[in-house]
Amino acid sequence: MNLIEIKEGKVSLLVPNPKDYEKNGKFDPSWAPVFYNPRMKLNRDISVLIVSVIKPKSIIDALSASGIRGLRYYIEVGGVEKLILNDKNPLATELIRKNIEKNKVEAQITTRDANSLLYEVKAEFVDIDPFGSPSPFILSSINSVINKGYVAFTATDLSALECSSKSSARRKYDLICDKLSFSKEAGIRGLIAKVIRESAILEKAAYPVFSFYFDYYYRVVFRVESGAKKADNLLSKQGYYYECPKCGLREASEYLEKKKCPKCGIDMKKYGPAWLGTLWEKDFVEKMRDKLNDFSYLDNYFTINKLLDIIIKESKYDNPYYRIDILSSYLKRNIPKREYIIKCLGSASVTHFDYRGIKSDKGMDEVNECIKKLTS
Ligand SMILES: C[S@@+](CC[C@H](N)C(=O)[O-])C[C@H]1O[C@@H](n2cnc3c(N)ncnc32)[C@H](O)[C@@H]1O
Ligand SMILES: [Zn+2]
């Protein structure tokens, strides 16, 4: 394997030379013998920030590939006493060995199936960054995290989570669903609900502390606490969203029902089981905000700053976002600017999920009134 050296954050990393694996001038990171995707840099940058808030003494990077995540946590956050970098691909662990030597990092390297490893070792922070769905690794990672420790999942299978593919939504996440106008937020809530149910099996409660959508993936971080009662409490905050495909009216309910729109009388679309609670723990996000100053060297510093700004604003609202363009089209009106709608509603904000959306604690009728007022 021909290697090239790249720099990410404060780590110098050897990765396979993309030139060697190009097909017709194109390159996909999955074509190389060891995976490294520069498009995931923002995911890793934010994860470094998150780990700096958690300050874990032990970390398992269970699907490590080049070792980049674990290396960055060790070097850029510090205070890590036990670092396990694992990948079932022996070419990956051979490369990880080179990369830890290069960066003078002390780590245990294992070439194991992540699931069997995670039933044998424990850590304060467990990172699951798979190809596609994290579902096959949820139970084992929750098992592996110590009480009050944290686990983070990446999911790139948005077609399942957003319910573009109903059958994979059902298979991977137990979802009975249709694609809703706020599918980007529904998807992350479907993933969170799945993690909460899997944790409940182990009598653990997985509290979502930070979630975001970017580019083509979700990243969700949970604090995991032991206790059957706590797990029951979280389970009771799952439910189903309903949305009318004609007027946009939405409802949420604990149960799966065949609902008709009270205005139009037609079948409503549905999505669930989904987490209906908050996506962000206020305290956690504020700590991220404070810590960000330590990471002004990151290429994505300004993007993260902006993302956190928006998330702090939208975290006041648990209701899924409204698509202003879609509601305007139902009303046969022009699309008013988001800022004007937000001002008109009084309590509302932009959302990072969709530049066409707004979040608010107001009902659809009030949003519609504002659209009408602004386009009359
Ligand atoms: C998306 S890549 C990880 C990327 C890496 N975390 C990063 O940020 O660059 C997923 C990795 O998981 C490994 N993998 C897939 N299934 C696995 C399993 N069951 N046990 C251990 N490793 C596995 C693959 O070999 C691959 O290297
Ligand atoms: Zn309707």
Radius of gyration: 22 Å
Q: Point out poorly predicted stretches.
A: none
What is the end-to-end distance? 65 Å
What binds here, in terms of ligands, is: S-adenosylmethionine, zinc ion
Number of helices: 14
| Silhouette | globular
CATH C-level name of the largest domain:
Alpha Beta
SS content category: alpha/beta
Question: Which fold name fills CATH's third level, the topology of the largest domain?
Answer: Rossmann fold
- State the fourth-level CATH superfamily of the largest domain: Vaccinia Virus protein VP39
CATH architecture name of the largest domain: 3-Layer(aba) Sandwich
Query: Helix and strand succession?
Result: EEHEHEHEHEHEHHEHEEHEEEHHEHHEEH
How much helicity do the residues have? 25-40%
How many β-strand stretches?
16
Tally of distinct domains: 2
Characteristic terms for this protein:
37% helix, tRNA-binding, tRNA binding, Phenylalanyl-tRNA Synthetase, Chain B, domain 1, zinc, 4-stranded antiparallel sheet, alpha/beta, metal-binding, tRNA processing, binds zinc ion
Description:
The chain has 376 residues and is of the alpha/beta class. The protein has two domains: 3-238, Rossmann fold (3-Layer(aba) Sandwich), CATH 3.40.50.150; 282-374, Phenylalanyl-tRNA Synthetase, Chain B, domain 1 (2-Layer Sandwich), CATH 3.30.56. Helices cover 37% and strands 24% of the residues. It has 14 helices and 16 strands. The strands form four sheets. It has a seven-stranded mixed β-sheet with strand order 5-4-3-6-7-10-9, with helices on both faces. Strand 3 (58-61), helix 2 (68-77) and strand 4 form a beta-alpha-beta unit. Helix 1 crosses helix 2 (68-77), helix 1 (41-54) crosses helix 10 (282-291) and helix 8 (183-201) runs antiparallel to helix 9. The longest helix has 19 residues, at 183-201. The N and C termini lie far apart (65 Å). The mean pLDDT is 98. The structure holds S-adenosylmethionine and zinc ion.
